[in-house]
Design brief:
The chain has one domain. The chain is mainly alpha-helical. It is 67% helix and 10% strand.
């Protein structure tokens, strides 16, 4: 897998645990199992940075319901990471057009 369409989100351990629990009660969506596995593996490995494909991250952001503060903060971090990725892609495409 290349780095195209791949992004990372830095969450605290509490945010990761909250996201894991929220995913468990979230209705099914495409890529849910993969996201759940990725978050579980990050918790087990004691990692703070979670790497997701852009489509998975967008689906998770759409379906993640902020029922407490940890999930709300995690969702904001996810949305910001998606926004930053989109801006970086736009800048890259502007540089290509200018060249």
């Amino acid at each position: 897998m290349g780095t195209e369409g791949v992004m990372s989100v830095k969450w605290t351990r509490a945010e990761l645990a909250a996201v894991r629990e929220a995913i468990e009660v979230t209705p099914l969506f495409d890529g849910r199992a993969d996201v759940r596995t990725t978050v579980r593996n990050a918790l087990r490995a004691n990692r703070r940075v979670v790497v997701l494909e852009r489509e998975q991250a967008e689906r998770l952001a759409t379906h993640l319901v902020p029922v407490d503060m940890q999930i709300a903060i995690a969702k904001v971090k996810l949305l910001r990471a998606l926004r930053d990725l989109k801006r970086a892609e736009e800048l890259d495409s502007d540089d290509v057009r200018a060249a």
